[in-house]
Amino acid sequence: MNTPDIKFDEKGLAPAIVQDAVSKEVLTLAYMNEESLRKSIETRETWFYSRSRQELWHKGETSGNTQKIVDIKYDCDQDAILVLVEPAGPACHTGSYSCFNESVLGEAKEVSSDRFAILNELEEVIAKREAEMPEGAYTTYLFDKGVDKILKKVGEEASEVIIAAKNRDHEELKWEAADLIYHLLVLLREQKLPLDEVLSVLQKRR
């Protein structure tokens, strides 16, 4: 199978950025050579080249935290690779969802003028919960119980929204609507359907 015309460096490597195809969170940065790129394309799972061990490695071969490839892209200079994946567990060897957890600027988040930024943040948190499954987290509980439980909660929250709206109770309605949106995002994650695809449907309908 032919590989894209990637410009590998003098060591035969190119940086590969791995991104969650659903949440858009950057998971890790690794390196690929021509062979690992070819095996990634053939198997639809990520393969990289270890610079320290100087050998190919299949992500998740020992841990089980494989990464199913949704798409592979490269930049305008053709010397960097972007791999969009559906992760089956944490991407980091520490057990974290992403390798990028430390902030140089501290914990303060950049102020955004996007009033829907919270949806992106919530989608990332839900994806992190699914990957790491921290004990005691409600989102972990939902993923552990499976799709039937998640569907039940979506139905319950939708009913609560209807009741609050019927009662003209704005205070109750905003809380129930928030609960419905949260559980809907959990369902989309369980189904591996990015929110972006739902938004694209709305754009097409407009």
Mean pLDDT, as a whole number?
A: 92
Computed CA radius of gyration, to the nearest angstrom: 20 Å
How many H/I helices? Answer: 6
> What oligomeric assembly is this protein in?
single chain
Strand content: 15-25%
The helix content, as a percent range, equals 40-55%
Q: Give the overall silhouette.
A: elongated
Q: Sketch the topology as an H/E string, one letter per element.
A: EEHEEEEHHHHH
Structural class: alpha+beta
Please tally the β strands and state the result: 6
Uncertain regions: pLDDT < 50 for 5+ in a row? none
* N-to-C span: 41 Å
Largest sheet: 4 strands, mixed
Strand order, largest beta sheet:
2-1-6-5
List the helices and strands and how they pair.
Elements: E1 14-20, E2 26-32, H1 34-43, E3 47-50, E4 55-58, E5 67-74, E6 81-87, H2 117-132, H3 138-145, H4 147-166, H5 170-190, H6 195-205
Helix pairs in contact: 2-5, 4-5
Provide an overview of this structure.
It contains six helices and six strands; from the N terminus they run E-E-H-E-E-E-E-H-H-H-H-H. The model has no long low-confidence stretch (mean pLDDT 92). The longest helix has 21 residues, at 170-190. Helix content is 42%, strand content 18%. Helix 2 (117-132) crosses helix 5 and helix 4 packs antiparallel against helix 5 (170-190). The protein is elongated. Strands 2-1-6-5 form a four-stranded mixed beta sheet, covered by helices on one side. The protein starts with 13 loop residues before the first strand and ends with a helix. With 206 residues, the chain is α+β, with helices and mostly antiparallel strands.
